[in-house]
Amino acid sequence: MERAAQRGFTLLELLMVLVIAAAGYALVVRFTAGGVSGAELKSAARAVAAGLRDARGTAIARQESAALVLDLEHRSFEVSGRGRARSLPGRLELKLYTAQSEIVDEKRGAIRFYPDGSSTGGRVTVASGERRFLVDVDWLTGRVSIKEGG
Q1: pLDDT band at 30, cuts 50/70/90?
Q2: How many angstroms separate the CA atoms of 101 and 50, rounded?
Q3: Dist. CA 47–CA 50, nearest whole Å
Q4: How many C-alpha atoms does 17 have within 13 Å on its Cβ side?
Q5: Closest Cα to residue 67, out of 123, 98, 122, 110?
Q6: CB-based contacts of 133, cutoff 8 Å, min separation 6
Q7: What residues pair up with 97 in beta bridges, in sequence order?
Q8: CA distances (Å), origin 110, targets 16, 134, 139
Q9: Architecture field, domain 38-148
């Protein structure tokens, strides 16, 4: 008398399914958690650039210097004299390169624009992990540009 074929999964097959599921879960968590999306990163860089352009326009219109003050610790910025700060996503990494005279302390600094449109010049780096945008300000013309990478 032949034995009827047994139905079901072996222990080895069940373990393989669990290993594959755990690996998939680990990949999903790694790529979706803890970082800033590409759209958020680009949006933050554009917001900083818009703030810099606003400061330049304010300096030209009022015929007095104006600055964009960046708070690295709280990830926010404001145009001097405007009184309203703009917040950036908390998971961003920010770096500011500016003239020594515009550094308030180790967590705050500014890029200043003058009535003729020129500026102290500088760079704000907006990053998340390996992705980054460089918001540059030309000291002679005050022109604001955004570059990816670097």
Answers
A1: low
A2: 23
A3: 5
A4: 6
A5: 110
A6: 41, 42, 44, 45, 125, 126, 127, 146, 147, 148
A7: 123
A8: 56, 16, 13
A9: 3-Layer(bab) Sandwich (3.55)
> Where exactly are the structural domains of the chain?
38-148
List % helix, strand, coil for the chain (3-state, nearest 5): 35, 30, 35
Cβ-proximal residues to 91 (8 Å cutoff; 6+ apart), any chain: 34, 35, 36, 128
Non-local (6+) Cβ contacts of 2 within 8 A are none
Range with the largest mean pLDDT of 6-15, 34-43, 108-117: 108-117
- pTM to 2 decimal places: 0.77
Which residues touch 116 (CB under 8 Å, ≥6 apart)? 60
Structure tokens at 100: 């020594």
SS3 7: coil
Average pLDDT, the chain: 90
